[in-house]
Write a structure and sequence with these properties.
- The chain is of the alpha/beta class.
- The chain is about 40% helix and about 15% strand.
- The strands form three sheets. The protein has a seven-stranded mixed β-sheet with strand order 7-6-8-9-10-11-12. The chain has a four-stranded mixed β-sheet with strand order 2-3-4-13, with no helix packed on it.
């Protein structure tokens, strides 16, 4: 182990014996009391020295035996310590790719802030490279979500959509202006490849049988599917049939999009554990029996051909939030869109969460035997932690 104080947390001294790491309430930690010798020793925790060498340095500084180990344990317990060489073989291989790691250094720094164990950030960043994500929809939201996930280190990002890129699909980080007229999925995959720090190998599509086997293998290995339809109705009231395959296969999926100048992120559906699209439909129909009739009218051919009200700024905000929730899930966390959806309507853009409860009669099984999702907890800033 080569201990290093997390560089992403800014350091400041309240007085000669009290040091604060980090400035935001969610992640700041105050350490004290710290004597002068220990304060000087902290400057040696830069990832260059291993623990045996640090013990020798401490003895030369007059610090008592066992002081270094106790200090390292204290710093590690407070989530302030990282390991410059840890994380396992995958993390080591990632660090060896200097150009790739340079692209991901800001992402790695962010992970060090939100993780506690030394080298946990490196492990999570390396694990992203092994994950497979599919994005269904390549409009203003979907294409940008795909490029952000690829740029953040997700190793395999596939995009599915039909039709050709229209001028109103174009947006920074998503579909480029020169792609107008090209197939949406083909263009979006090119954007993904250009955004990725490591270019994934192009899939081998030689032969029909090989293609079918590859497609089945890809589907079974998916870690997450982001459902980002260009049709706003499919975001607000998603058709359960469109994700039946995901529910049946137990594949987590996250909805994201814009409907009538309202951004929607969520729910993140964990099949069998949280409410799905069919739960949402059943619950809404119970409250309003005319709902299916309205959906049929809104989904008519004429309505579907209308240009969707999806302004660029809102689409970008939705894509960013959806990508952040997707990355949190892939990193092993439970984002606040799990079993709930966040909505914000222009022009105020006041984000608020609406729970999506499991329905007891839905065949997904999330509402059976009390397996419904927990009541959403409102999350606010944490108090600064003192250690």
């Amino acid at each position: 182990m080569h201990p290093i104080l997390k560089p992403a947390l800014r350091r400041g001294w309240h007085d000669l014996n009290t040091v604060q790491f980090g400035l935001t309430p969610a992640h700041a930690v105050v350490l004290g009391p710290v004597d002068t010798a220990t304060g000087t020793f902290l400057t040696l925790l830069d990832g260059v020295r291993g623990v045996p060498l640090l013990r020798e340095e401490a003895r030369r500084m007059g610090l008592p035996d066992g002081h270094v180990d106790a200090l390292l344990e204290r710093l590690s317990g407070a989530g302030l310590l990282d390991d410059a060489t840890g994380g396992g073989p995958d993390a080591e291989a990632l660090r060896a790719q200097t150009r790739v790691m340079d692209r991901l250094r800001a992402d790695h720094a962010a992970l060090t802030v939100t993780t506690a164990e030394p080298a946990e950030a490196a492990r999570k960043l390396a694990a992203r490279h092994r994950t497979r994500v599919q994005v269904r929809g390549a409009g203003r939201v979907g294409a940008l979500v795909a490029s952000v996930l690829a740029g953040a280190g997700v190793g395999h990002v596939d995009v599915r959509d039909g039709g050709c890129v229209e001028p109103w699909d174009v947006g920074p980080g998503g579909q480029p202006a020169e792609a107008v007229g090209e197939r949406r999925d083909v263009s979006a995959r090119q954007v993904v490849r250009a955004s990725a720090p490591v270019r994934p190998p192009r899939p081998d599509r030689r032969g029909t049988r090989d293609r079918l086997v590859s497609r089945e293998q890809e589907e079974s290995a998916l870690s997450l599917v982001v459902v980002a339809p260009r049709d706003g109705l499919a975001v607000h009231s998603p058709d359960p049939a469109s994700t039946e395959d995901l529910v049946a296969a137990g594949i987590p999926h996250l909805y994201a999009g814009v409907v009538e100048a309202t951004g929607v992120v969520g729910p993140l559906v964990l099949p069998g554990g949280t409410g799905c699209a069919n739960c949402l439909l059943l619950g809404r129909t119970e409250r309003d029996p005319t709902w299916p009739r309205l959906l049929a009218q809104w989904g008519s051919g004429q309505a579907a051909r209308q240009i969707q009200p999806c302004d660029l700024a809102l689409a970008t905000a939705v894509a960013g939030l959806a990508a952040a929730h997707a990355l949190a899930f892939l990193d092993g966390e439970s984002p606040s869109s799990t079993g709930a959806r966040w909505e914000a309507a222009a022009p105020g853009l006041d984000w608020h969460a609406r729970p999506v409860w499991p329905h007891p009669h839905c065949p997904c099984g999330a509402g059976e035997g009390g397996n419904g999702k927990e009541t959403p907890v409102e999350r606010g800033p944490h108090d600064t932690m003192a250690v």
